[in-house]
Amino acid sequence: MAASSAANLTITVTKTTKKGRGLIADIDIPCGSLIFSEKPLLTLYAWARSEHDYQTPHAKLLADFAELPKHKKRIILENLSISDTSDFQRVVFQEFKNYKSPSWRNFNRKYGYNAQKILTAFNTNAIGPHLGTQAAMLNHSCVPNAYATFEDDIQELTVHALRDINCGEEICISYLEGAALFQPALPQPGASPATRREFLQTQRGFDCLCEACLEVSEWVADQYQLNDHPSERLRAELCGLITEYRRCDSQLRKKWSRVNSHGLDPDSIRYLVKIATGIVELIEQLGLTSIEHLEWYENIAKWERSLEDEDAAAEWQGKIRDIVHMCVDGDLQDSKHLLKEV
Question: CB-based burial of residue 298 (10 Å sphere; 0-12 exposed, 13-18 middle, 19+ buried)?
Fold first, then answer.
């Protein structure tokens, strides 16, 4: 859905502890709201424009940079680029050099700018093929609260809230979307945490070590020593699975807002069912089965129904009824009320 720049909400650029600059919400932002929209500074075209005889899209990108006003060049070179020539910059530049392209030194001499610095700044901060000013400040989260896209009809990058965002909360998107500029390819739904971490390291130059990116076993080992009580290890594993579920669920929510449920990838839904089933098993092992945790049973029933597996959905609905009857201690009136709610 197209959105107007006039609908931009109040946000603040701030320095975060580990991720550099970030965007913070100055007000409560309801789910689905347009947070901001902006025209891109630069766009990496899928093919070179033949009328200008550019040999690669990246040569066109550099030529477009040279035509930008001085203040926009400063934004890219001073605010969006990495200060030192890191290993990541060298890897990115080498990947770009693999294309048949004009001499990068010639570009440096002709325009007086460092091609390596420009291309690395673009790759590190772009949303797909588009580099924005505010959008470049959005940090990554494996469980994002917002999503960014390019609206063709208004030719702007737009950022919407994926869930309710509280005042003072950082606005984050997932970098595991869009299109990969070079290898490795974009991780598929249900890809292992190791695959996601490899992608983020190669494409964006950082190692994501959150609980959703770490293997559950790594997360457990990091949080608890081996001699700790077994129940604590189970709780740590439960925490890791819940985070992974929310990460995948947030991706599906975004897709659901664009297509009906029948247009969703069945493999993604089956992966969610697998994770949610593991969560339920851990809840039961920990003796935490209660009405408070019915949402996981309800989630599984919902996804099974979307897969048109009515038998499996009915089985989970039966488990929900059993838990309700058990938890209300046989009180028929309370049971009917709770069952009506679920």
Answer: middle
